[in-house]
Each structure stands twice: as structure tokens, then as C-alpha cells.
Automatic annotation (TrEMBL):
<dbReference type="Pfam" id="PF07991">
    <property type="entry name" value="KARI_N"/>
</dbReference>
<dbReference type="GO" id="GO:0050661">
    <property type="term" value="F:NADP binding"/>
</dbReference>
<dbReference type="GO" id="GO:0000287">
    <property type="term" value="F:magnesium ion binding"/>
</dbReference>
<comment type="pathway">
    <text>Amino-acid biosynthesis; L-valine biosynthesis; L-valine from pyruvate: step 2/4.</text>
</comment>
<dbReference type="GO" id="GO:0004455">
    <property type="term" value="F:ketol-acid reductoisomerase activity"/>
</dbReference>
<dbReference type="InterPro" id="IPR014359">
    <property type="entry name" value="KARI_prok"/>
</dbReference>
<feature type="binding site">
    <location>
        <position position="230"/>
    </location>
    <ligand>
        <name>Mg(2+) 2</name>
    </ligand>
</feature>
<keyword id="KW-0560">Oxidoreductase</keyword>
<keyword id="KW-0100">Branched-chain amino acid biosynthesis</keyword>
<dbReference type="Pfam" id="PF01450">
    <property type="entry name" value="KARI_C"/>
</dbReference>
<protein>
    <recommendedName>
        <fullName>Ketol-acid reductoisomerase (NADP(+))</fullName>
        <ecNumber>1.1.1.86</ecNumber>
    </recommendedName>
</protein>
<comment type="pathway">
    <text>Amino-acid biosynthesis; L-isoleucine biosynthesis; L-isoleucine from 2-oxobutanoate: step 2/4.</text>
</comment>
<feature type="binding site">
    <location>
        <position position="52"/>
    </location>
    <ligand>
        <name>NADP(+)</name>
    </ligand>
</feature>
<keyword id="KW-0521">NADP</keyword>
<feature type="binding site">
    <location>
        <position position="194"/>
    </location>
    <ligand>
        <name>Mg(2+) 1</name>
    </ligand>
</feature>
<feature type="active site">
    <location>
        <position position="107"/>
    </location>
</feature>
<dbReference type="GO" id="GO:0009099">
    <property type="term" value="P:L-valine biosynthetic process"/>
</dbReference>
């Protein structure tokens, strides 16, 4: 079984007297930095001039250029977009890293695929919340936490694991649960999850169902409510109590259809595609493709994003949501 940690397993005192530089103040940067500060940690922010800099200053943080923040820090948590991390690391962080610094990530991509190769004189750890940054913040404010993964890639000081655990406690994760993993396992499962199930799988499933109904002549608004709007209600039940709780709430007719038709939709072809996608992640082929895509200014990323933004389901959805009270600002 995987090793689990809770609040009492983490000793926050290991962070006493250490300055944590959070590099980047986007989704994860903001959530993690605010929680750490409220937990009593000393936090500074490293950025370039721009919107995030402004926001971090307004939130009351000391903000420095990335190089200066790295120079001042004992723990450097890199929360830049994954595709920018290697360039910023080479130019601004690496020349300023003191010996015995704890270099930290919330996703293993750059270490696992060798885009960043830290010197042997620093710790290399991961604290990866399993949820978006605004949830990391909201749950903390409610006295709860978003679960997180921790991993130690390199332990130069002997303190790497204790620092990772104390940091996880500082962002509130030990209030939920912290699981021990490796950079390889986190990176590969995270990429697979978002590609095959959470993001890619779900949007493709919704789109396929929507197009099937609309092509058969049903009203797009009906199709939208049926295959997109209701998705959340079903997923919430699964989240709360697994398939069993969901099936307790739906009709017997729905349950019979679920059990007998679902496996036809996600059949042998889908399993084969999932295996192929996982192999591309494990072999580094996906990482190479995504890094090269960024080098040429993302032609595929931009074209596919635009095509989906213009899809009928997005237009119909915007119109329907306009009058639903739960979506009013
Ligand atoms: P965001 O895109 O939300 O934020 C990126 C931040 O980096 C912004 O503040 C941006 O500032 C800053 N930035 C970008 N380029 C530079 C640069 N060259 N120099 C200085 N600052 C720069 O990132 P996320 O929070 O989504 O992701 C951060 C990490 O967290 C990634 O490793 C990701 O995989 C991981 N993660 C993300 C999750 C999520 O839900 N978002 C969940 C779990 C892990 P500016 O305003 O100047 O552009
Ligand atoms: Mg991810
Ligand atoms: Mg129904």
C-alpha cells in the first residue's frame, strides 16, 4: 500500500527560519503562497513585471524578479507553466541557487523528462496538490485541505522529505491526505489522467454524445442539457460515494442502460487507444511533441482550441447558462 501522511506526521518547525520563494503567482502560486503565509511561513514571490506581479503585491507579498527571489530563498517552489520552467530555470534560477536549497515542483514533468537538471548540491522534491489553485485556497479557508502527493528525487541535505511534508502541511494538504509517490509515477499518471479521462476523455465523450443527438435531428438545447449539464450531477454522486451511490440515485432503467451500454461506448478500441496514449507518455514521445509545439508557437494547440471554441455546443451552452441563477456572477 502507498504511504499516507496526515497532520500529525508533519513537523512544521523544519521550515522555521527558512524563506520560501514561490516562483509564479498563477493558479497554484497564489493558492499555495496565501496558505503558507496563513500557516506562519515566511514567503516571498518571484516574477517578471506584469499582471501577476501586481496581484501578488496587492495581496501584500514582497515580490522580486525571479533571480533575486531565488537568491534570497532556502526553498524555491517553481510554479511557472511547465513549458516555461526550463528556460526560466536556466537563465534566472540556476545561477542563483545556493547549496542546500530545496528545489520544489508541483508537477514532475521537467525533472522526469530531463528538461531541468539540478546540481547534486540541492534537494529536489515535489508537493503536488490534486486540485486547482483556487480550490487549494478555498478549502484551506474552510479549515479543510486538498490532498497532495509528495516525492523526493534528490536528498542533498537529509531534510528533503521533512521539508516536503512540512510544506504540504503549510498549504493544508495534510488536513486531507498526503500520498508518497515518485516523480515518474506522478508525471505519468497525471498526464494520462488529464489526456485520457479528466480533460480529453470527458470533453470527447460529451462532444460525441452531443453530435450524435444533434445529427439525428434532436434540438441542440436538449442535447446540451442531457449530455453536458447533467454530467456534473452524476459526477458529484460518484465523487461522494462511488458508482454505488450514483446507481442508488438513478432509475433502474438508467442503471440497466448504464451497465449494459456503457462498455459498448468505451469498448476495446478505447482501451487500445488508452494503452497507446500511456505508451507515448512513458516513452517521452508526448513530452517531446509538446516541447516542440511550444518552440514553434503552438500552431496545433491554437487551431484545435479555436475549433472547439466555435463548436455548436459552446454557443448553445453560453445561451442556456445565461439565465441560470447558479451561473450569474
Ligand atoms: P499558471 O499559468 O496559472 O501561472 C503561471 C505563473 O507563472 C503566472 O503567475 C505567470 O505570470 C508566471 N510566469 C509565466 N512565465 C514567466 C516567466 N517567464 N517569468 C516569471 N514568471 C512567469 O500556472 P499553474 O499554476 O497552472 O501551474 C504551475 C505549476 O503547477 C505547473 O507545474 C503545473 O503543472 C502545476 N499544477 C497546476 C495545477 C492547476 O490546477 N493549475 C494542479 C497541480 C499542479 P504572468 O502574469 O507574468 O504571466
Ligand atoms: Mg496536469
Ligand atoms: Mg435522463
Amino acid at each position: 500500500m502507498v504511504q499516507k501522511y496526515y497532520e500529525s506526521d508533519a513537523d512544521p518547525r523544519i521550515l522555521d527560519g527558512r524563506t520560501i520563494a514561490v516562483i509564479g503567482y498563477g493558479s497554484q502560486g497564489r493558492g499555495q503562497a496565501l496558505n503558507l503565509r496563513d500557516s506562519g511561513c515566511r514567503v516571498i514571490i518571484g516574477l517578471r513585471p506584469g499582471n501577476s506581479w501586481q496581484r501578488a503585491s496587492e495581496d501584500g507579498f514582497e515580490v522580486y524578479p525571479v533571480a533575486e527571489a531565488a537568491r534570497r530563498a532556502d526553498v524555491v517552489q517553481i510554479l511557472l507553466p511547465d513549458e516555461n520552467q526550463a528556460a526560466v530555470y536556466r537563465a534566472e534560477i540556476s545561477p542563483n541557487l545556493k547549496e542546500n536549497t530545496c528545489l520544489m515542483f508541483s508537477h514532475g514533468f521537467n525533472i522526469h523528462y530531463g528538461q531541468i537538471v539540478p546540481p547534486p548540491t540541492v534537494d529536489v522534491v515535489m508537493v503536488a496538490p490534486k486540485g486547482p489553485g483556487h480550490m487549494v485556497r478555498r478549502m484551506y479557508e474552510e479549515g479543510k485541505g486538498v490532498p497532495a502527493l509528495i516525492a523526493v528525487q534528490q536528498d542533498a541535505t537529509g531534510d528533503a522529505h521533512a521539508i516536503a511534508l512540512a510544506y504540504a502541511r503549510g498549504i493544508g494538504a495534510t488536513r486531507a491526505v498526503v500520498l508518497e509517490t515518485t516523480f515518474a509515477e506522478e508525471t505519468e499518471t497525471d498526464l494520462f489522467g488529464e489526456q485520457a479521462v479528466l480533460c480529453g476523455g470527458v470533453t470527447s465523450l460529451i462532444k460525441a454524445g452531443f453530435e450524435t443527438l444533434v445529427n439525428a435531428g434532436y434540438a441542440p438545447e436538449m442535447a446540451y442539457l442531457e449530455v453536458l449539464h447533467e454530467m456534473k450531477l452524476i459526477v458529484d454522486l460518484i465523487y461522494e460515494g462511488g458508482f454505488t451511490k450514483m446507481r442508488d440515485s438513478i432509475s433502474n432503467t438508467a442503471q440497466y442502460g448504464d451497465l449494459t451500454r456503457g462498455p459498448r461506448v468505451i469498448g476495446p478500441e478505447a482501451y487500445a487507444a488508452m494503452e497507446e496514449i500511456l505508451e507515448e507518455i512513458q516513452s517521452g514521445e508526448f513530452a517531446r511533441e509538446w516541447m516542440l509545439e511550444n518552440l514553434v508557437n503552438r500552431p496545433v494547440f491554437n487551431a484545435l482550441t479555436k475549433a472547439d471554441e466555435e463548436h455548436l455546443i459552446e454557443q448553445v451552452g453560453a445561451e442556456i447558462r445565461r439565465f441560470m441563477p447558479q451561473f450569474q456572477k
